[in-house]
Design brief:
- It contains 13 helices and 13 strands.
- A 7-stranded parallel sheet has the order 3-2-1-4-5-6-11, with helices on both faces. Strands 7-10 form a two-stranded parallel ribbon.
- The C terminus is likely disordered.
- The protein is an alpha/beta fold.
- Bound molecules: NADP nicotinamide-adenine-dinucleotide phosphate.
- The site of NADP nicotinamide-adenine-dinucleotide phosphate has 21 residues, from helix 1.
């Protein structure tokens, strides 16, 4: 069955892949954004509209939820102004409440919510993880709604801000690369698999009310991942994993750099391994998706990057010829 689906956060890394996947399946997609003019690439997709809206304004939210069957909330931030947790609370928890209220008022009963692995309102090691956990709990407390939450480890894929960020940093750093929290473990999950899990969950009642940890097929330390990126780019760098004190020092310094490349809250998130319990086979067993390995995808996008290539990717996904 085809649905009208409204996505918040649909212009981001995951959102773009999800919009492509939903459009390919024949759904009609409405993406709410603060900057419509920046997302020309999304507007080439069939049945996808991109609308300027302030998602924190309940009236605008309710207005844009009219005639929609499903709402997907992907909005998330990794950094806030200051370090008190208020910004995280506003964007994660308060927005979740507004999404619930506007959905109710618009007669929408199906919600898909993006959380994060280790999100926990009490035990999360950072403001990011605690606010993500609180938002997830508030969504699932709404017993009149069919909510499904997704809790991925770090997500990789074309235009990610993980592998690509380290690639850029490695290129700029000669010889020795000091890496904070290098022993933290990850199970990177492919953005295409995450998007497919969302798509397959929409009309599957077995997934209503469920929360799914999403992990890729293999675990790596952060240091192993950065070494892999350096090898792919043929950069001879010595990756030095910093201890606790030096990592925290780095966070305290970089927190004040433009764009906050690394913050104290990021440091706190990295105190917990981002890996699934050993028996986690959600992608395969619940969604019938064979998890994609980093080695199968990263070389394609890391070694083949121009904005024209990316634009053509969206055109191809939209079944239009490359320019
Ligand atoms: N990427 C990962 O590795 C990863 C891992 C685990 C969980 N997640 C979660 O997955 C979700 C999507 O991640 P992503 O990597 O796609 O993020 P992203 O590329 O940074 O995109 C974030 C989206 O959220 C919107 N947004 C950001 N700040 C906002 C604010 N203050 N108010 C309203 N909207 C705001 C942006 O919309 P506009 O700028 O267009 O308005 C953008 O579309 C997030 O909730 C994130 O926490 C991501």
């Amino acid at each position: 069955m085809k649905h009208n689906i409204c996505i918040l956060g649909g212009t981001g890394f995951v959102g773009k892949h999800l919009a492509c996947a939903l459009s390919t399946e024949g759904h009609t997609v409405r993406i709410l954004t603060r900057h419509r003019e920046r997302h020309r690439d999304l507007r080439v997709l069939p049945r996808v509209e991109v609308i300027n809206a302030d998602v924190h304004d309940s009236q605008q939210l309710q207005h844009n939820f009219q005639q929609q069957d499903v709402v997907i909330n992907l909005v998330g931030i990794l950094n806030e102004h200051g370090d008190k947790g208020k910004g995280f609370y506003h964007v994660h928890v308060e927005l979740a409440e507004k999404v619930l209220a506007a959905s109710r008022a618009s007669g929408i009963r199906r919600l898909l919510h993006m959380s994060a692995l280790n999100a926990d309102p009490g035990r999360g090691s950072s403001f990011y993880l605690r606010s993500k956990g609180e938002a997830e709990n508030r969504m699932h407390a709404a017993k009149d709604m069919s909510v499904t939450s997704f809790r991925p480890s770090v997500i990789f894929g074309p235009e990610d801000s993980f592998i690509n960020r380290f690639a850029e940093l490695l290129k700029k750093t000669p010889w020795i690369f000091p890496l904070a929290c290098g022993e933290t473990r990850f199970a990177p999950v492919y953005v295409g698999d995450v998007a497919q899990a969302f798509v397959r969950s929409i009309s599957n009642p077995a997934t209503f009310g469920k929360r799914y940890n999403l992990c890729g097929p293999k675990e790596y330390t952060l240091k192993e991942l950065v070494e892999y990126v350096a090898r792919l780019l043929q950069l001879k760098r010595r990756i030095i994993s910093l201890g606790r004190f030096a990592s925290l020092l780095q966070a305290n310094v970089l927190e004040y750099f433009p764009g906050k490349p690394f913050s104290r809250d990021n440091y706190r998130s990295l105190q917990t391994d981002s890996v699934c319990p050993e028996d986690n086979n959600v992608l395969r067993e619940v969604f019938g998706i064979e998890p994609t390995a980093i080695e199968a995808e990263v070389p394609h996008y890391l070694l083949n990057q121009t904005s024209r290539t990316r634009y053509n990717l969206f055109r191809q996904l939209a079944r239009r010829d490359p320019l």
